[in-house]
Amino acid sequence: MKFFNYFCPLCWRPTTENKRFCPIHRQPNGAKEYKKRRRQLERAAFLNGWSHPTNDIFNSLISKVIAPKSVNRSITDSSINRVDDDSLSRISTICASNYQECFRLISAVNTKRFKSIDEWGGAVIRVIDKSANEATVNDWKKNCSECTPSNKRLLLIHLFARIETEKTALPEPAKKGPLIGTISVNQEVLIALLKAYDDQQQLKTKINLAALAKRHGLTRQTMHAKWIMLLKNPEVYRKAIKMQKNQQKTK
Ligand SMILES: [Zn+2]
Hints:
By secondary structure, this protein is an all-alpha fold.
């Protein structure tokens, strides 16, 4: 079962497979939020040296938090000799120790009030998403109804893991263009990349990222990620380098 398909690829919110994005990140209504989130995810990829497509970055961040599968395993292991395999309070105890920020935020949602994972998850969504879009809750319930009991539990753990990722693992969105700090360290690399970019534009030459990476002591993946960043807005990088060179001159 592909749990990622039950959530918006850009955030924690549940959605159905055919809608793909949540109401916040669905275009064109979500255009502004979508762009902001895109910049945030691109920054995360940059910091991790990833060259993943934007729609895969949030999902990759989840495994940096704590992968739902391993949390699920501790729940199943703890149920040895126990009959009430899906007791909500036990799921809650184990998830709370793994997804602390998420559980701090949903502390008002008392599991004792709920009879099922469907209801509990719905309440969690309403607490996290104050502008509660009922469509999101309905999508959650619809997805739950398609799951076997053990998959439903795993789906709930995915929801917690995504909320934890949203609240703890996302960097501030990158401003348009590079951050000053990253430029000073990588000025040499950026100049080389800009030159390669210009050559490519003017002379139609192919760039050799592997050779560039080797020359600057970087991995190919890191160099590739930098190249992708540069391609988004080469002129901003050009200006930043120029600015920094001027600053150095006046020092
Ligand atoms: Zn979303």
